């Protein structure tokens, strides 16, 4: 994670175990650090997981980029006729990363690290906002040479003090860079051999390329970029330069930005990264659709996070941050989240629950539902006896874990079966199916019925293939029920195969018998027509073929699995422990609505100030409200243009009414200076908030910038 | 009087001041530029004589300007400084490079920080009094057209630098555009003009044939160049590009030879083999749709596989978040529809408005021909809220999407940067692009465009 804030989050939110330690510490007020033996098991924090994931996802494209740089630097050394003849082109990698710009940082970070590790120590990455105008060259030199480059309009005292020789050596031009590069490579040639051995991957220590990464090509000023490329191309014989362009939109932007005379200096190769939706699918797969982490998101929160991703930013990083926020909120707001941890710890924590905590368990909705189903005696026990409740809780926690262990494999099985159906009744992605399942009983869903109908028409090889995949999904699962299901599924598959061989055998013997009859060749027409006839007859009789019987059996089996394991988590007792459900909080934090809040503050100040005197009925503002609220309220009644004097009059009336003066008395007629000043302040505050602006259309008027009102 | 004798074209260049042998070497290095080189030599005169203060050389790209100057100055060992004006982002760099190459780095270090022209002249005179010129010094300025963008006094001063520094120095300006475009309003010293014409087809053939492959005969390579020019001469006369193309495609040309199918002399068969290939090169690698590296790989691949490789402009698809798509659509509508027609498109009960009589005269021409018009932010949002199919809260991320569309260059901000004062934007995407985008969200944009009513 790039920001320190995120690091903090990662640090304090180690999901497994440690979270519970930390949080139970907070709740119990003691600070005992348990040096857990779980370390052996290699537990990963959320942050680490996501980082590893990012790395894996980018691995392929990064590898190909590395290959590209190596190849380019090696072809430079070749001295065959063709490469000599070729006009000196600068090798350029165009890296298309998609519009989710916030995610790019991490990719470039790991890219430059990898390059530095294995190809070249000379890597500089630049961003458009860092170099407005002519600073690009200076910035590149600075990054590469690790020195302060003197640009003429820059006032720096220290460079004056240093000797003139040094001052010259860092003058802002590429020839300086060339000299520096030559000095560097000469040094490494004569350098200690031990140092070279430390980086054995470097295939060519004498001439490592100089890589310049342009992180956001679109944002660069085209003129600056063109000049930079022109300058670089003059030095390409002396300096093995290489560019990497980070492109957010499409590669054709290169052609929009650079004219032919410039782009002919580049040898551009295209690299396309994974689309962000695929990226997200992997993250969800590894992070959410797994029983590994006890913390879960409920349907609404998932929906909010997904909609932010799909509708607003396409940023996987923001999605992960959203999950982290939910995690923080959950452990912060839900006291029972002490139980949201590894099984052993959870069971231990149950035993340590205080009476107060147990009371809150008794108030849980899901627990009350559970109690209602019990015998009256048991009900009494649950409400009175704390130790009994603890035991029951342990059992319930175990049940919840089992539920999760079964839920995800079955979800995946159902997905593999339905994801290839026409028109995707249950969604293309697992996450869609997951959302459906989180909401209500999936088997009551209409789409599920249609999916099942479609499945009943599936051809044999397709069905067998998807069942085979289900077997693969179920194989690594350790839970008892899943093992049982696996056995049954394998039996079904075996039957399918048997059917296959039986059918073949049947055919063969029949064919042979025909053949032995000697009347027909077994492939001739007559034979075909008879079989067709037979088939038709069987269809007419509505008699199911053995395959159809078996198919129905298999689907009933799947249906059974779904009904027993894919019930929504809300139906599970104690689900509140693991599931974070406050979607409104997440939405408020991640998808802020500044204008709505400002309007809310202005129209009902009580909401924020909590002053009793401000309390009013809907749609009105009390006289005692702050000046800006009164001015705002009054301006809502106006049209597009507001006469300032009328506004002032209205304001003065309201305010003097608040002070208890009779509006008709003489001294109020004249607007006091203080009120005048307060009014002007309120108006300029409104202008600053963007509700009005001055206009030249009419004297003494201001224009409204928002529409609507009362 | 300088006597310059020019032999028959393509033979030798003669001047009495330099040894024959050296001139021969010079002539060999610049084929087809003997006339211009001879002219230059005569302008330069004897090494110790004062030369004309400034010479302006112009000609198209890759017509040998820099090359001729470089070869002449280098082979004849004349003191010179070559400066590229692209590289000189500040005048300081220019002054420094000139002083560096004439007087060494001690002189260059005398320049103060952010030097003015008079600083340069002062130091030059100071240095030149210590080491006066024995031969004419030459300052060659490549891409001189960029000098027009620098301080107004620089170009006139450079043109009469000889007078200013009282030294035997000549400025040679190289440019792709004519002198008329340089002349400042205030007038200046007129340099001598020298034009480098484009190479003719025969000359190109002669020059290109020189860099033959070492393992093939000159005639063979020359016939290859002939074929190459036959295809490319009509679209490209740039020597550098042609040389590049020649290098890229030669291996393919030699292929049948290596397989032993054809003899070197069988030009017709070789032509039949290479011609479709060259035609394909014209559409791809010449336009830089495909990089030269990829082109080489393609040559090694089988024909059917190479079809999979797509050019740069084939990738135009951009994936955008849902609301960004609608924002872009709204921006497009706002850019290409007259603001007065918004009522007709986005109000439910707009009544009938006849197209002809409610239009101003200039609105009758197609808005797509006129290009996008700027629109204020609130119009964009108003259209956005009416085209997007569900209620959208005006969240911060909607606004941040607008600014990220600006950084992606799909929108451009036309007014100043002050966000408080109703910013204006323009939509910068093409019709095809927006149609593709709106198809993905099932929005029929053509129905909302005034031009297609």
From TrEMBL, chain A:
Gene Ontology terms: biological process: DNA replication initiation
Entry's family note: Belongs to the ORC3 family.
Name of the featured protein: Origin recognition complex subunit 3
Residue span, Origin recognition complex subunit 3 N-terminal domain: 52-339
One GO molecular-function entry: DNA replication origin binding
GO CC field: DNA replication preinitiation complex; nuclear origin of replication recognition complex; nuclear pre-replicative complex
Residue intervals of the Origin recognition complex subunit 3 insertion domain: 351-582
InterPro entries per the UniProt record, alphabetical: ORC3, ORC3_ins, ORC3_N, ORC_WH_C
Keyword rRNA-binding: no
Keywords tagged on the record: DNA replication, DNA-binding, Nucleus, Phosphoprotein
Quaternary context: Component of ORC, a complex composed of at least 6 subunits: ORC1, ORC2, ORC3, ORC4, ORC5 and ORC6. ORC is regulated in a cell-cycle dependent manner. It is sequentially assembled at the exit from anaphase of mitosis and disassembled as cells enter S phase.
Biological function: Component of the origin recognition complex (ORC) that binds origins of replication. DNA-binding is ATP-dependent. The specific DNA sequences that define origins of replication have not been identified yet. ORC is required to assemble the pre-replication complex necessary to initiate DNA replication. Binds histone H3 and H4 trimethylation marks H3K9me3, H3K27me3 and H4K20me3.
Organism: Dicentrarchus labrax (European seabass)
Domain Origin recognition complex subunit 3 winged helix C-terminal per the UniProt entry, residue ranges: 595-707
Annotated compartments: Nucleus
UniProtKB/TrEMBL annotation, chain B:
Chain's gene name: orc5
Summary of the function given for this chain in its UniProt record: Component of the origin recognition complex (ORC) that binds origins of replication. DNA-binding is ATP-dependent. The specific DNA sequences that define origins of replication have not been identified yet. ORC is required to assemble the pre-replication complex necessary to initiate DNA replication.
GO function terms (MF aspect): ATP binding; DNA replication origin binding
Annotated source species: Dicentrarchus labrax
A single GO BP: DNA replication initiation
UniProt family annotation: Belongs to the ORC5 family.
Record-annotated Orc1-like AAA ATPase domain positions: 30-172
Protein name: Origin recognition complex subunit 5
Entry GO terms, CC: nuclear origin of replication recognition complex
Location (main, coarse): nucleus
Entry keywords, A to Z: ATP-binding, DNA replication, Nucleotide-binding, Nucleus
Self-association state and partner proteins as the record states: Component of ORC, a complex composed of at least 6 subunits: ORC1, ORC2, ORC3, ORC4, ORC5 and ORC6. ORC is regulated in a cell-cycle dependent manner. It is sequentially assembled at the exit from anaphase of mitosis and disassembled as cells enter S phase.
Domain called ORC5 lid: residue spans: 221-288
Cell compartments where the protein resides: Nucleus
Keyword ATP-binding included in the entry's annotation: yes
Every Origin recognition complex subunit 5 C-terminal domain range: 320-449
Domain of life the protein comes from: Eukaryota
Listed SUPFAM superfamilies: P-loop containing nucleoside triphosphate hydrolases
């Amino acid at each position: 994670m790039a920001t320190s804030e995120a690091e903090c989050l990662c640090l304090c939110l180690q999901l497994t175990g440690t979270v519970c330690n930390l949080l139970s510490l907070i709740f119990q007020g003691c600070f005992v650090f348990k040096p857990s033996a779980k370390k052996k098991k290699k537990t990963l924090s959320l942050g680490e997981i996501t980082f590893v994931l990012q790395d894996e996802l980018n691995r392929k494209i990064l590898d190909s980029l590395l290959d590209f740089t190596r190849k380019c630097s090696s072809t430079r050394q070749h001295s065959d006729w063709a490469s000599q003849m070729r006009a000196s082109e600068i090798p350029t990698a165009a890296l298309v990363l998609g519009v989710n710009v916030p995610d790019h940082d991490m990719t470039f970070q790991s890219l430059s690290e990898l390059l530095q590790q294995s190809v070249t120590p000379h890597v500089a990455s630049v961003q458009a906002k860092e170099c407005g105008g002519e600073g690009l060259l200076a910035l590149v030199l600075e990054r590469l040479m690790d020195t302060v480059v003197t640009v003429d309009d820059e006032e720096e005292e220290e460079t004056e003090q240093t000797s003139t020789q040094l001052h010259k050596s860092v003058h802002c031009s590429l020839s300086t860079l060339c000299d520096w590069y030559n000095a560097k490579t000469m040094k490494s040639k004569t350098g200690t051999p031990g140092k070279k051995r430390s980086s054995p991957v470097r295939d060519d220590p004498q001439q490592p390329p100089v890589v310049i990464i342009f992180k956001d090509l679109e944002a660069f000023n085209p003129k600056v970029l063109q000049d930079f490329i022109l300058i670089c191309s003059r030095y390409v014989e002396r300096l093995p330069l290489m560019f990497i362009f980070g492109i957010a939109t499409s590669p054709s932007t290169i052609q929009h930005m650079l004219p032919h005379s410039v782009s002919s200096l580049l040898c551009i190769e295209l690299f396309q990264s994974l689309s962000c939706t695929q990226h997200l699918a992997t993250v969800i797969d590894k992070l959410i659709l797994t029983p590994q982490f006890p913390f879960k998101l409920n349907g609404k929160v998932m929906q909010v996070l997904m909609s932010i991703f799909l509708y607003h930013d396409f940023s996987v990083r923001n999605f992960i941050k959203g999950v982290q926020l939910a995690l923080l909120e959950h452990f912060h707001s839900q006291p029972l989240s002490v139980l949201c941890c590894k099984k052993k710890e959870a069971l231990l924590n149950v035993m340590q629950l205080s009476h107060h905590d147990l009371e809150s368990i008794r108030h849980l909705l899901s627990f009350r539902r559970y109690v209602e189903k019990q015998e009256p005696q048991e009900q009494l026990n649950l409400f009175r006896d704390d130790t009994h409740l603890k035991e029951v809780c342990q059992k319930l926690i175990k049940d919840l874990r089992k539920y999760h262990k079964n839920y995800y494999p079955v979800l995946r099985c159902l997905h593999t079966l339905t994801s290839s159906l026409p028109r995707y009744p249950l969604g293309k992605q697992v996450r869609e199916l997951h959302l459906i399942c989180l909401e209500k009983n999936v088997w009551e869903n209409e789409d599920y019925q249609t999916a099942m109908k479609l499945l009943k028409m599936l051809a044999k090889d397709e069905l067998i293939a998807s069942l085979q995949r289900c077997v693969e999904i179920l194989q690594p699962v350790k839970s008892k029920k899943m093992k049982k299901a696996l056995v049954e599924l394998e039996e079904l598959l075996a039957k399918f195969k048997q059917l296959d061989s039986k059918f073949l055998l049947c055919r063969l013997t029949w064919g042979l018998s025909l053949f032995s009859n000697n009347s027909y060749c077994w492939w001739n027409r007559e034979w075909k027509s008879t079989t067709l006839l037979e088939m038709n007859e069987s269809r007419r009789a509505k008699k199911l073929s053995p395959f159809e019987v078996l198919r129905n059996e298999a689907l009933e089996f799947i249906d059974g699995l779904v009904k027993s394991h894919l019930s929504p988590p809300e139906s599970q007792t104690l689900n509140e422990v693991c599931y974070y459900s406050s979607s409104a909080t997440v939405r408020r934090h991640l998808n802020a609505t500044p204008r709505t809040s400002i309007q809310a503050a202005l129209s009902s100040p009580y909401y924020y100030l909590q002053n009793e005197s401000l309390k009013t009925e809907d749609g009105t503002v009390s006289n005692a409200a702050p000046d800006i609220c009164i001015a705002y309220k009054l301006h809502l009644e106006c049209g597009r243009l507001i006469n300032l004097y009328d506004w002032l009059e209205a304001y003065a009336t309201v305010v003097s009414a608040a002070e208890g003066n009779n509006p008709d008395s003489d001294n109020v007629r004249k607007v006091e200076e203080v009120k005048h000043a307060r009014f002007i302040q309120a108006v300029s505050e409104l202008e600053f908030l963007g509700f009005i602006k001055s206009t030249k259309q009419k004297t003494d008027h201001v224009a409204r910038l928002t529409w609507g009102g009362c | 009087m300088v006597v310059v004798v020019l032999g028959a074209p393509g033979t030798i260049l003669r001047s009495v001041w330099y040894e024959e042998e050296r001139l021969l070497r010079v002539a060999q290095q610049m084929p087809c530029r003997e006339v211009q080189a001879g002219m230059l030599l005569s302008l330069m005169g004897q090494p110790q004589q004062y030369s004309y203060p400034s010479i302006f050389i112009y000609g198209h790209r890759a017509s040998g300007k820099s090359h001729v100057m470089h070869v002449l100055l280098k082979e004849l060992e004349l003191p010179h400084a070559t400066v590229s004006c692209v590289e000189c982002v500040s005048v300081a760099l220019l002054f420094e490079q000139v002083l560096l190459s004439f007087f060494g780095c001690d002189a260059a270090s005398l320049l103060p920080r952010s030097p003015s022209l008079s600083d340069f002249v002062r130091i030059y005179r100071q240095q030149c009094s210590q080491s006066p010129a024995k031969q004419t010094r030459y300052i060659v300025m490549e891409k001189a057209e960029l000098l027009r963008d620098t301080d107004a006094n620089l170009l006139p001063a450079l043109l009469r630098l000889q007078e200013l520094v009282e030294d035997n120095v000549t400025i040679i300006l190289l440019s792709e555009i004519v002198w008329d475009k340089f002349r400042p309003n205030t007038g200046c010293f007129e340099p001598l003009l020298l034009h480098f014409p484009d190479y003719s087809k025969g000359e190109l053939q002669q020059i290109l044939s020189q860099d033959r492959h070492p393992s093939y005969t000159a005639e063979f390579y020359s016939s290859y160049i002939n074929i190459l020019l036959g295809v490319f001469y009509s679209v490209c006369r740039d020597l550098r590009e042609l040389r590049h193309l020649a290098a890229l495609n030669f291996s393919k040309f030699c292929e049948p030879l290596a397989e032993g199918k054809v003899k070197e002399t069988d030009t017709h068969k070789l032509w039949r083999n290479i011609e479709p290939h060259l035609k394909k090169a014209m559409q791809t690698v010449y336009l830089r749709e495909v990089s030269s590296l990829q082109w080489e790989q393609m040559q090694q691949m089988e024909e059917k596989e190479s079809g999979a490789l797509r050019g740069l402009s084939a990738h135009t698809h951009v994936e955008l978040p849902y609301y960004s798509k609608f924002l872009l659509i709204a921006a497009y509508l706002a850019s290409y529809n007259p603001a007065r027609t918004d009522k007709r498109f986005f109000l439910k009960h707009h009544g009938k408005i006849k197209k002809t009589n409610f239009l101003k005269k200039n609105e009758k021409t197609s808005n797509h021909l006129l290009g996008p018009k700027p629109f204020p932010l609130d119009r964009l949002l108003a259209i956005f809220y009416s085209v997007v199919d569900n209620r959208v809260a005006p969240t911060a991320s909607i606004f941040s999407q607008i600014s990220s569309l600006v950084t992606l260059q799909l929108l451009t901000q036309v007014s100043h940067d002050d966000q408080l004062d109703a910013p204006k934007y323009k939509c910068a995407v093409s019709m095809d692009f927006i149609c593709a985008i709106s198809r993905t969200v099932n929005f029929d944009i053509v129905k909302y465009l005034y031009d297609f009513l």
